[in-house]
């Protein structure tokens, strides 16, 4: 896979991500600056740490030693200096750990606040994207992005980027100080750098490869688990449990092996780095001691130098670990930005205004619409409906009925022609105000996790309890709701009480009813229900549709037959139009389909009757 893995490849995207999230970070300015100052203080104090030792060696152990050049220190009596140095040591270390604490907590807080806001915006943005985007993207994948990518990015910023930044600052600070302390010694120490590079580059890239493989395996493992648990019914019916268990344990075993391999490689990297530091230290120690004996260097300086040498290069061995994590984080960040950059296809036009209260006069004027350019799904659709009338859309599946209704909701905009409500193009209104006046009942109604109150109130968040109960009564739902364990407070949806298809449908109808919208769209609302449930739902729908301009998509032509206008749609065109009587008289496709269904119904009834009399 072409994911960047090296630090120099990751950094550009990382800066891009940082730039993109900059406005969010700016909102947390005070906290971010405070944390950065704490980080700088930590680095500075770490650089100071060996200095008290230097004074002890140069001025206390050898009182005749060379002056430090700092009058305040040179004027002190050796014992005072010793005590002050000891105190200084504790103070510097104490302050350093305080600063470290401040920067860790501060950055973690900044990261959490920034990313929580990004996540909220991302969620809002996802909901604003048009249906055409959501149809292409898989729902689950989006949830993963919203939840886990943000979490990953936060983790990476806190556990990889900041430590890396701290380490780089320390490395730069120490190297600069070492140059300043003694040029020749520093150049000698640098002799080992090429060795460092050769040894760590190879091991680091091996570690990256293994970790990447391990991540891929973990992904595959999660996919196997999700697949088999998600389809557990099929897995059980086909007795595939053992097969899946074997696949899973195979992947699990390999992932374990990779994990061990990564740890082994990390350990050998640590060993190599330690050894190289020892070699550099030996070289510096040898030459440094000579310099000290020749009075060209103080013992204290040598001590400071050696301590920097040891500490500066130690973090190098963690770089591989950090870059692996950074790569993961940048990939997550890029995916998030990708999503944020998606533009909603249906947008409010400039100057769009809130829709006035509709009467419900709907006209389609020569509408043509294509999901894929060049392959129109709807062609020259032209009809009108008076307020309170019912239009039935019938035809084979795939003929374009649902597409037609989604154009009324402005889930998509037509390519040609326009839709007018009460004489005005719906594109003149904001999408939100347009949709607020349209109720929809779909074939499979989704209940959200929450109480029945809440589920009905989703139709109209400001509804009073009385309005909700009235809506439930219209929907034939009041009685069964009252019989539930906690009545209207019963929790349904995910992990809640399970309701039958008919019951769910009636709650959805109540949701549509509470909205009191003048326009209603019913998309195969009774499909999949048994006869008994169907009867109650149809009754509820009739009450709901009373006085509203209603579009009903129905496979069952009995339901369609009552409509004021029936449109028979084939391949995106209106093939026949009229009332039931007119279409039956015309004896075309509608009549043919109707007769077929009537015969089927007759046959079913007769079979049932014989079954009962037996
Ligand atoms: P119906 O409601 O009559 O069953 P639809 O309006 O759902 O028909 O679909 C009409 C045609 O448009 C079908 O060929 C379907 O495959 C296609 N279609 C529906 N939704 C999309 C979409 N989001 N992207 C691309 N094609 C689609």
TrEMBL record:
Any Gene Ontology CC annotation: plasma membrane
Start and end residues of each ABC transporter domain: 362-596
Keyword Nucleotide-binding: yes
Keywords: ATP-binding, Cell membrane, Membrane, Nucleotide-binding, Transmembrane, Transmembrane helix, Transport
Listed SMART domains: AAA (SM00382)
GO molecular function annotation: ABC-type transporter activity; ATP binding; ATP hydrolysis activity; ATPase-coupled lipid transmembrane transporter activity
InterPro entries: AAA+_ATPase, ABC1_TM_dom, ABC1_TM_sf, ABC_transporter-like_ATP-bd, ABC_transporter-like_CS, P-loop_NTPase, Type_1_exporter
Coiled coil: none
A Pfam family recorded for this sequence: ABC_membrane
Membrane topology of the entry: Multi-pass membrane protein
Record domain ABC transmembrane type-1: where: 33-328
Top-level taxon of origin: Bacteria
Transmembrane annotation, as ranges: 156-179, 185-205
Compartments (UniProt record): Cell membrane
Stated name of the protein: Protein tyrosine phosphatase
Species of the source: Gloeocapsopsis dulcis AAB1 = 1H9
């Amino acid at each position: 896979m072409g994911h960047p893995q090296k630090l120099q490849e990751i950094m550009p995207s990382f800066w891009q991500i940082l730039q993109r999230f900059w406005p969010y970070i700016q909102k947390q300015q005070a906290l971010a600056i405070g944390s950065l100052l704490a980080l700088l203080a930590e680095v500075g104090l770490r650089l100071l740490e060996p200095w008290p030792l230097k004074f002890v060696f140069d001025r206390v152990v050898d009182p005749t030693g060379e002056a430090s050049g700092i009058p305040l220190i040179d004027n002190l009596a050796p014992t005072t200096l010793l005590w002050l140095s000891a105190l200084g040591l504790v103070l510097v270390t104490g302050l350093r750990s305080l600063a470290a604490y401040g920067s860790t907590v501060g950055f973690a807080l900044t990261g959490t606040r920034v990313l929580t806001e990004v996540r909220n915006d991302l969620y809002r943005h996802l909901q604003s994207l048009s249906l055409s985007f959501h149809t292409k993207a898989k729902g689950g994948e989006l949830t993963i992005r919203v939840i886990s990518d943000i979490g990953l990015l936060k983790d990476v910023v806190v556990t990889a980027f900041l430590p890396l930044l701290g380490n780089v600052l320390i490395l730069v600070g120490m190297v600069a100080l070492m140059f300043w302390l003694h040029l020749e010694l520093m150049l000698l120490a640098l002799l080992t750098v090429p060795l460092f590079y050769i040894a760590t580059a190879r091991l680091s890239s091996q570690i990256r490869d293994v970790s990447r493989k391990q991540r891929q395996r973990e992904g595959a493992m999660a996919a196997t688990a999700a697949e088999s648990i998600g389809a557990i019914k099929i897995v059980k019916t086909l007795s595939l449990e053992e097969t899946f268990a074997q696949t899973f344990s195979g992947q699990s075993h390999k992932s374990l092996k990779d994990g061990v391999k990564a740890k082994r490689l990390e350990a050998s990297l640590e060993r190599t780095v330690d050894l190289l530091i020892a070699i550099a230290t030996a070289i510096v120690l040898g030459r440094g001691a000579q310099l000290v004996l020749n009075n060209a260097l103080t013992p204290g300086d040598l001590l400071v130098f050696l301590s920097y040498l040891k500490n500066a290069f130690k973090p190098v061995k963690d770089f591989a670990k950090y870059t692996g994590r950074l790569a993961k984080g940048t990939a997550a960040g890029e995916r998030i930005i990708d999503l944020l950059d998606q533009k909603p296809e249906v947008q409010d036009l400039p100057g769009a205004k809130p829709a006035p209260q509709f009467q419900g006069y709907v006209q389609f004027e020569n509408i043509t619409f294509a999901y894929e350019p060049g392959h129109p799904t709807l062609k020259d659709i032209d009809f009108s409906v008076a307020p309170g009338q019912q239009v039935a859309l019938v035809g084979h599946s795939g003929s374009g009925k649902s597409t037609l209704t989604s154009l009324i909701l402005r889930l998509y905009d037509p390519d040609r022609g326009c839709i007018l409500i009460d004489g005005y193009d719906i594109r003149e209104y904001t999408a939100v105000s347009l949709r607020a006046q349209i109720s929809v009942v779909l074939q499979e109604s989704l209940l959200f996790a929450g109480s029945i109150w809440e589920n009905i109130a989703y139709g109209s968040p400001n509804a009073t309890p009385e309005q909700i109960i009235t809506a439930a009564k219209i929907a034939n739902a009041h009685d069964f709701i009252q019989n539930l364990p906690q009545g209207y407070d019963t929790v349904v949806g995910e992990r809640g009480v399970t309701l039958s298809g008919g019951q769910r449908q009636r709650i959805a109808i109540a949701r549509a009813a509470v909205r009191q919208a003048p326009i209603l769209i019913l998309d195969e609302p009774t499909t999949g229900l048994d006869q008994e449930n169907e009867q109650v739902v149809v009754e509820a729908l009739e009450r709901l549709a009373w006085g509203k301009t209603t579009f009903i998509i129905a496979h069952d032509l009995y339901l369609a037959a009552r409509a004021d206008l029936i449109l028979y749609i084939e391949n995106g065109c209106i093939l026949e139009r009229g009332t039931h009587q007119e279409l039956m008289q015309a004896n075309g496709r509608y009549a043919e389909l109707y007769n077929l269904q009537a015969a089927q119904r007759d046959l079913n009834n007769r079979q049932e009757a014989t079954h009962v009399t037996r």
